[in-house]
Every structure is written in structure tokens, then in C-alpha cells.
Write a structure and sequence with these properties.
Layout (H helix, E strand, L loop, with lengths): L23 E2 L23 H19 L3 E8 L2 E12 L4 E2 L6 E2 L6 H13 L27 H5 L13 E2 L8 H6 L17 H15 L3 H13 L4 E2 L28 E2 L8 E3 H12 L8 H8 L23 E2 L7 E7 L4 E7 L4 E7 L7 H17 L11 H11 L1 E5 L11 H4 L2 E5 L5 E2 L13 E5 L2 E4 L5 E7 L2 E7 L8 E3 L6 H32 L7 H33 L9 H31 L4 H23 L10
Antiparallel strand pairs: 1-3, 2-3, 2-13, 3-4, 5-9, 6-8, 7-9, 10-11, 11-12, 12-13, 14-15, 14-21, 15-16, 17-18, 18-19, 19-20, 20-21
Helix pairs in contact: 1-9, 2-5, 2-6, 12-13, 12-15, 13-14, 14-15
């Protein structure tokens, strides 16, 4: 699953994969490995089993070593045949068990969704699901309408249902937390934050809902359904959505790692199972790719597969698109490259990181999965570069980009300046605070060129963007495009190819912009801290010189209460910082085990933040009424302002939401 993991990945330890990572080829009785015979286009290498295997053998062992990644599996298919199936590194570091592409099971994360979407389309074929019918037709609980608009299966499959992000119980290690699909979904229906069909907003919860619909309309439990209707027809004998795995498959499961040099944490359970709980071998995924490349052979009718792979634009809300960027199909999303039509899906758990790409016109499929995140998230970089390098080697571009003149480009870049927030977010719970610290700031450099500091290339440098068409930019050193939507002469939305099918950035309303709110919050915290520190310092000075305190009576009570409340405000905010750091340092902590802490922080925050404002206002009133010096008067107002900023931030970003649903 494509999840936002906020903690910094630990610095890698020396060691781990010390011995050579010898590639493991698929043993018989694997599908036949054959060489392609069609001539390669000019400038391209011919895609044959021998060439791609040699290329992979030179590419991946070093990448795994350098990234502190334990193991990987790659399969390449063409014209209905597997032309390469390679295993690299280890499925188990402690036992030095190598990765076997035929038998070793990896967790493809959100790539699992392609199986779920295939199941949905089978039920569409049978007339049991209408893609444009209110989803409530098929379930036994209620998804509330938003602005009178219900959610449909088409919108769920294109991630435009408008649901906020759901993170609780997304991934965990304790089997006691694992529940049925029905229980998971009925625990909480997330808030819909966008009108249906208008905004790409990736949702694991909605995908799980689609799996539940399949279960209900077919009358077969989801795990049983995919085994009977997809895995069995395709001969995918080493694949399962079940958690834990069936006993026959458990010995084949690869261990997952944060880094190869760090201890393993155990088997990952995925709460929204149809969205990401698949375990599968590389060759089973090759079989799945072959079926989709061959018009759904064995699992879908050709016309159904065609609808799934190339959803008609007239059935897509244009508000959800930013041409010419990649878009969602029905479940698949585009990763077009070098002028080739490519549909795909990526997936991530804590430990496993996967991508599957289908070059539709070329009848080629490419699948890779890693069993470690690696040092500083190296698997993400290798995954992306491996696909791009594969495309450049075998399907190089023959086109050339245009270029916008420098004056116009500078004007367009200035129109992009500001703070932006991603559509995939939570708003009704404490996760909302990440939308403050996570806003993307766009600026321009001295030459007028667009600068997006948050977007970095494989080497870690900020991407240089060239405007190749009006409001369309290309990575100067890569393939990704960034494009903006302009309405009434103003830029209102933008995205880039890697995420554009399922996430976009919208301009942050001024009232919630980090551009002013974060500096104001930092200044407020500094004022509160100085207020707290001044208390003991002034006491020590008075004691040293035997000086009496300048206030008495009610003024003294207000003086002391203000400082006590300032200290409590800082303590609660410190608690929130610690909680968020711990919870997002390991998202498996986002379970009911954190509920007590979250309730305490929300309730104490409501009392203390409101109390701070009230007491600071009382203190300021007394300070001004009593005719104290201007320094004290001004500081009393500053402290009151600081309390108001903290209360506003906590309210606007849901630290006082009074819920443990998130």
C-alpha cells in the first residue's frame, strides 16, 4: 500500500548481506522461458530472456547491497510467455534462504488490489454489480451521501469516492487484532471529504469495501472467491489473501525487514485485506500479468478486460483529471513512459515494496518486489528506477518535448507559488495535524524556474523542472511530468505522473496555511516557554535581593495561574509530539492499543487549551486595569495571543476531535 510513513528510517548498520547475492532462476515446472523474436526498434535492445536476465543480474545484486535490502524477485513476460524469472538475495537472512521466483512468497501490498478489481469486474460481467449504481445497493450498512451524491463502484475503482484516509489497524503484527472484513468495515465509516467523482483520493478502506461487495453479491467469502475464480483458473498455486497464511504456504513466506541488517519484526497483517493482504510468488504474478495482457484470458471476457484497461473518458468526471498526466483506469492506473501505453499498480507494506507494469501494445509485463524498505527507503528508489531503466533499455523514446519560452515559463512558475495540501488525507481526527506540517511549498528560483523542494530525484537532489507545454513541466533528468489545472486564470490544482492517478494537490485556504500559521505557532510556543521560564528566574532574583512580588490578591492568582497553564499547554503539546513520533515511527502502533493515550491527550487538551485562553484573558484584563508598566501589559497580550493560536491550531487540525477513529 501506498502508505505516508513519517519517521526517518534508521541509519543502516554495516553487515547484513555480506555474501554475494547470486540470482536464482525459476526451476521447472515453471512456465517456459522463451526468447522474443520480433526485431527491436532502432536504439533499443531486443527484449529476450537472455538479455533481460543478464541486465537484471548486473543491476540488482549491487542495488540490494548498496540499499541494505535483503531480497527481490523479478518476472518479465512477453507474448504470453515468461521470458525471465529471477530471485536475488535472501528470503530469510538468518537462514540464508535464497529467493526462489517460483515458490518464495512476497507481499505485493496494494498491488493486491488488481486481484480485487478483477473480482469486481467478474461480478460486473455476471450482472450482479452495476458500476454506476449507489454502492449502498450492495451492502448491509450505510455510506452517507455527500451533497446529495452517493458513491458508486466506478468511483471506488478510480479512487474518486471522496473518503478521507483511514490508518487505524492498517498494518499490525498481533494476530489478535485481526478481524473479519465485515467487522473491519463496520467499525467506522470514514468521512467523505470530497464530492464523488471530483477528486483523486486514494482509499484502502474503499477497496476493502469493494471486496466486501464481491463477497455479498457472490455469496462466497472473499478469500474463497479469489481462490476459486482467479487463482485456480490461472494456476496460481502459491497465492493467498488469507491471514495468517494456510499452513502449506507458511514455510514459503519471505521474511520482511526494515533493512537487511536489522532484525525482522514478523508477519504483517493487513486490516483492509482486499486492499493489500495478498501473498504470492513471482511466477504466480507472472501468470496474472499474462492473463491481463491476453485480454483477460481465463478470468475475464475480452470486452470486460478492455473496459478495465482503458476506461472510456466519457465515463470519467473531467474534474478528476489533469491532462496530460497519467490517470486511473478501472483499478489499474497509467504509468505511461516513452510514448508507450503502460497500466500498472504499485504496493507497499512496512517491509515489502512492489510494482507491476503492463506494456499493453507490446504485450510485455514487468513485475518486481522487494522484501525490505532498505536504508533510507532505498527500495522505493530502486523500484522506480528499475522500471524506468527497463523502459529506456527496451522501449526508448522516439519523441521530443517542446519548450515554453523563458518569459512565459517564469510567469507560469510564479502562478504556482504557494502552499498546497494533498488530497489523500484525514480531516476528522488527530491525523489532520499532519496536513499542517506536511503542506507542500512551491517557490521559484532566481531565474524564475519552478521549485518544489519536497520533490527530489533518485540522488536526493531537488528536481529541476522544464516547462514543455503551458503548465506542463518535465523532470530535466527524468521521465516524470508535473502539470497544473488553471481555472479563471488561477492555478487551482496540480500533480505529477507518479501519483496523479490517485492523488492531487489543492491550494490551502489562507486561514489554514502553514505559511503564516506555523511561524505564529512557533512564536506562540516560544512566548509560552519564556513565560514559564521567567517564573522561577524571577523568584530566584527576588529571593537574592529580598524583593517582594509586584502583585497581590487576584492579580497574583492570575499571574501564577497563567504560568501554570502555560506549562500545561507545553506539556500537552509535547505529549502530542511524542505520540505522533512513536505512532508514525511504526504504523503497526496505530491500533486500539493507542486509544487510551489519544483520549487522554484530546480531553486534557480541550480542558487546558481552553483554560489557557480564559486565564490568560483574565490575567491580561487585570494587568491593564491595575495600571502596570507597558512591558507587562504588552506581554500579557502576547501570552493571550499565544493561547489563542494554540487553541485555534488544535481546533482547526483536529487535536480536539474527541474520537479514536482514524
Amino acid at each position: 500500500m501506498r502508505l505516508a510513513k513519517l519517521a526517518v528510517i534508521a541509519v543502516a548498520l554495516i553487515g547484513g548481506i555480506a555474501t554475494a547475492q547470486k540470482p536464482v532462476a525459476a526451476p521447472s515446472p515453471a512456465p517456459a522461458v522463451v526468447a522474443a523474436t520480433a526485431p527491436a526498434p532502432a536504439g533499443a535492445h531486443e527484449l529476450t530472456g537472455a538479455d533481460v536476465s543478464t541486465w537484471l543480474d548486473g543491476y540488482l545484486p549491487y542495488a540490494l547491497h548498496n540499499g541494505d535490502i535483503a531480497g527481490a524477485v523479478v518476472t518479465v513476460v512477453k507474448d504470453g510467455q515468461v521470458i525471465a524469472a529471477r530471485g536475488y538475495g535472501y528470503a530469510d537472512m538468518a537462514k540464508r534462504r535464497p529467493v526462489d521466483p517460483a515458490a518464495t512468497l512476497f507481499r505485493p501490498g496494494s498491488t493486491s488490489k488488481l486481484v480485487t478489481w478483477t473480482a469486481v469486474m467478474q461480478q460486473v460481467e455476471e450482472g450482479k454489480i452495476d458500476l454506476d449504481q449507489d454502492i449502498n445497493t450492495y451492502i448491509d450498512f450505510k455510506i452517507p451521501a455527500r451533497n446529495g451524491k452517493p458513491v458508486t463502484m466506478r468511483q471506488i475503482m478510480t479512487h474518486t469516492g471522496g473518503f478521507e484516509e483511514v490508518l487505524k489497524n492498517i498494518i499490525f503484527y498481533d494476530p489478535k487484532i485481526n478481524t473479519s472484513l465485515e467487522t473491519y468495515l463496520k467499525r467506522w465509516v470514514p468521512t467523505r471529504i470530497f464530492d464523488a467523482g471530483t477528486t483523486p483520493d486514494y482509499s484502502n478502506w474503499a477497496t476493502a469495501l469493494a471486496g466486501y461487495v464481491v463477497q455479498r453479491v457472490s455469496g462466497v467469502p472473499f478469500d474463497d472467491y479469489v481462490e476459486r475464480r482467479i487463482f485456480a483458473p490461472l494456476g496460481m498455486q502459491h497465492s493467498s489473501f488469507r491471514q495468517p497464511l494456510p499452513k502449506t504456504l507458511q514455510p514459503l513466506m519471505s521474511t520482511g525487514y526494515d533493512q537487511a541488517s536489522l532484525p525482522a519484526k514478523g508477519y504483517e497483517f493487513v486490516g483492509p485485506a482486499p486492499a493489500g493482504s495478498l501473498s504470492s510468488s513471482g511466477l504466480d504474478m507472472a501468470r496474472f500479468m499474462i492473463a491481463h495482457l491476453d485480454n483477460g484470458r481465463g478470468i475475464l471476457k475480452p470486452e470486460t478486460a478492455a473496459m478495465m484497461h482503458n476506461s472510456p473518458l466519457d465515463r470519467v468526471n473531467p474534474m478528476s483529471l489533469i491532462p496530460p498526466l497519467n490517470r486511473m483506469e478501472l483499478g489499474f492506473f497509467e504509468t505511461n513512459i516513452n510514448g508507450r501505453e503502460v497500466i500498472a499498480h504499485l504496493g507497499d507494506t512496512n517491509h515489502f515494496h512492489t510494482s507491476l507494469h503492463l506494456f499493453m501494445a507490446d504485450h510485455v509485463g514487468f513485475y518486481v518486489s522487494f522484501n525490505s524498505a532498505g536504508r533510507e527507503g532505498a527500495a522505493h528508489v530502486v523500484r522506480g528506477q528499475l522500471f524506468q531503466d527497463f523502459a529506456d533499455r527496451y522501449f526508448p523514446s522516439t519523441g521530443r518535448d517542446g519548450r515554453v519560452d523563458a518569459k512565459t515559463a517564469a510567469e507560469h512558475a510564479r502562478m504556482m507559488v504557494g502552499h498546497w495540501e494533498v488530497s489523500r488525507r484525514s480531516v476528522s481526527n488527530f491525523i489532520n495535524i499532519l496536513n499542517l506540517v506536511g503542506q507542500v511549498d512551491i517557490t521559484v528560483d532566481d531565474t524564475g524556474r519552478l521549485v518544489v523542494p519536497a520533490l527530489k530525484g533518485p540522488g536526493g537532489a531537488v528536481i529541476v523542472w522544464d516547462e514543455i507545454a503551458p503548465f506542463v513541466w518535465r523532470d530535466h533528468n527524468g521521465h516524470d511530468r508535473l502539470a497544473a489545472k488553471v481555472v479563471d486564470g488561477k492555478v487551482v490544482r496540480w500533480s505529477f505522473d507518479l501519483i496523479s492517478p490517485f492523488m492531487v494537490y489543492d491550494r490551502v485556504p489562507a486561514i489554514r496555511s502553514a505559511g503564516w500559521l506555523l511561524p505564529a505557532l512557533y512564536a506562540s510556543l516560544a512566548a509560552l516557554l519564556l513565560t514559564v521560564l521567567y517564573w522561577p528566574v524571577s523568584w530566584l532574583i527576588r529571593r537574592r535581593y529580598a524583593a517582594p512580588i509586584a502583585v497581590t490578591g487576584q492579580a497574583l492568582k492570575a499571574y501564577r495561574a497563567t504560568r501554570i497553564m502555560a506549562l500545561l499547554v507545553l506539556a500537552v503539546l509535547g505529549g502530542w509530539m511524542a505520540a505522533i513520533t512513536v505512532l508514525f515511527g511504526d504504523i503497526s502502533m496505530l491500533t486500539a492499543s493507542a486509544d487510551t493515550l489519544l483520549w487522554f491527550l484530546q480531553i486534557s487538551g480541550a480542558i487546558i487549551f481552553v483554560g489557557m485562553v480564559g486565564i490568560a484573558a483574565w490575567n491580561a484584563w487585570l494587568t491593564w486595569r491595575d495600571g502596570r508598566g507597558w512591558a507587562r501589559k504588552i506581554w500579557s497580550v502576547i501570552v493571550l495571543g499565544a493561547g489563542l493560536i494554540v487553541l485555534y491550531t488544535a481546533s482547526a487540525y483536529s487535536l480536539l476531535a474527541m474520537t479514536v477513529n482514524y
